[in-house]
## 1
Amino acid sequence: MTGTAYRNRLRALLTPAEHRAFARLDTPQKIQTFIEKLPPNFELKGDTCMSPRSVLKTRTAHCAEAAVLAVAALIYHGKPAWLMDIQALPSDQDHIVTLFRERGLWGAISKTNHAVLRWRDPIYRSPRELMMTYARIQSEWRQEIDAGLFEAIFARALRARALADRTRRSRLADGQTRQFAACAGGAEACIAPAAALDPGRIKIARRRGMAGAARAQGQAHEVMLV
C-alpha cells in the first residue's frame, strides 16, 4: 500500500492547500518538527481519530493522529512507512509511532508530550530493537510517577497524623495540669526546675516509649518533654 499507485491515489484527493502542506514535509525530520509544533489533542469532548486532513485543519493531534499524518506525508513523497503500536498495560495508554527506513536502518517519528518518547534516529537494525528503546524509558517514567505519587500520599498521611496528634493532646488538659506528649523514639522527660517541686510526688507515665503526664500535689507545674 506504499507503492506508486497508492501515492497517486493519495495525491488525487488533496486540495491545493493540502498539496502545499505535504510538499514541505519531504523528510522525516521535517515531519517530526511539524507534528511537534502541533498542540496536543486532549480529546476533551470524547475520543477522536482524526484524518490527516482534519489534523491540518484543526492544527492539533494526539500520537495516533500524528502518526497517520506522518505516514501520509511519507507516502506523498514516495517513501514507505509503517505504523507501530507499542501496547501498554490496561492501567496505561498505548503509544503509536511511524516507522521509516534510511540506508537499511529503522527510525521513528513520534508525537507525544514527553520528549524521551519522541523521535528516533534511523540507527536501529530492526523494529523490535527500536521499540525496546521506548519500552524501557516508558517503564522508568511510569515508575517515577508512581514513586512520586506514593511519596506525596505518604507525606499527606503524615501531616494528617500529626494534626490528629496535636488535636488529641490539646484535649488532655484537665483543669490545673496540662499534659504534653513527646514523639516516639526513646524521648526523655525533662521537668522544668522549680524550688517547690517534689520529685517524690511526680509520676511520669511511660507507655511504648512515649513520655506521659506529670502531676505535683498542691501546685501546678508544666512538664517539658524533649
Note: Confidence is low (pLDDT under 50) at residues 143-150, 174-226.
## 2
Amino acid sequence: MSPLTEADRVPGSDAGQFTAAPERRLLLAVEAEVTVAVVVTPSGHRPPPCRRRSTVGTSTKPKRGPRLRHRPTTASQRRLSQGARPAIIERSAIIDQFSLQRGETVRPFGESPISSDVTSSGHQLLARSRVLGVLAPEDRAHLSEQCVERRFDKNQVVYVEGAPADSMLILGSGALKVSSYSADGSELILASVVPGEAIGELGMLSGLPRSATVTATEPSSAMMLSRAIVVRLIEDRPAVALAMLQSMADQTRRITGVAADLVFLDVHQRVARFLVTNARGPSNTVRATQTYLGASVGASRQRVNVCLQEFKRDGWIAISSGSIRVLDPESLSRYVTT
C-alpha cells in the first residue's frame, strides 16, 4: 500500500494532519524488520477516549503485545536461531586466534634467494644434522642446493596443528617449541627443538596433517626440504631412513615421558624434574620464564611460582629475571623420586 501523499492533506489543516478514505485507515509502516500498525482517522474525528481501568489490586506493568521477529529463511539460520553451534571449527583458526592474543606472529614466511653463502651455510648445517649428517660430503653439497632458507622472528608460528604436512625443517640457529593447544587456548609444550635437530618429518612421511604447532621462541633460521626431495633421498640413501627413524623414536620417547609425568607426578615433582633436566652450563642455569615452565609441565604460572618459592626457601634454586639457577640438583632429583 502506498503512503499518504499531498493529495490526502486536508485543506487548511496543520502540516501533519491528513485525511484518508475509510478503507485506508489502517496503514502498515515497515521499518527495520518490525511491523508497526498506524491508525489514521478522518479529519475532524477524534478516536473514542480510552476508559481508564482501575489499577487497584492489579499490576501497573503495561501489557506487551505479540513479539514480532524476523524468521530465519535458511536451514543454517534456523539452526543458529535455535542456539545450535557449528559442529566443525577450524583448528588453525583457533590457533591463530590465541597466537595473536599471546603476541605471536602468524604470517606466511617467504623464501629467501639461494646464494653461494646460503649454500655453504646449508652444507655446514646438514653436516651437523643428526638426520642428514650421515650423508657423504658430496651428497650433502648436492642436497644443500635444493634446500630453501627460512628465517623466523621471535613468537612466529612455523607450523600450525592441522595444516598439511608437505615439508620438514633442519634448525640452524635459534630455538623452537612444539606445542598443543586446547579449545580455550591453554598450551602444553611437548618438546623443544635446538639447532641441528629436524622437525616436521613425522607428518611429512605419514601424509597426515600436522599433529602439533611449532613456534619460534627466539629469532631462528632453518633449511627447508620438501616432501618430494626427502622421499627421493630416502629411496637413494637408506642410511637417511635409519637416522630419521632413530630421531622419531627419540621424539616418541620424550612424548611418552611427558605423558607419564602428567599422570604419575604432582606439580612440585614435575617442576623439579624440569629444572634438573634443562639445567645447562657450569652454573646449572635454566633460561625459561615461569609461563614457559608452566606450559612445559602442564600447570599454571601461579602454581609454578608457588613451587619455585618453596624450592628457593629450601636453598635448592636461585631465581632471577628470565632464568633459574639450580643450586642443589641432587636434592631436586631425590624429590622427584620420593
Note: The two ends are 86 Å apart (CA to CA).
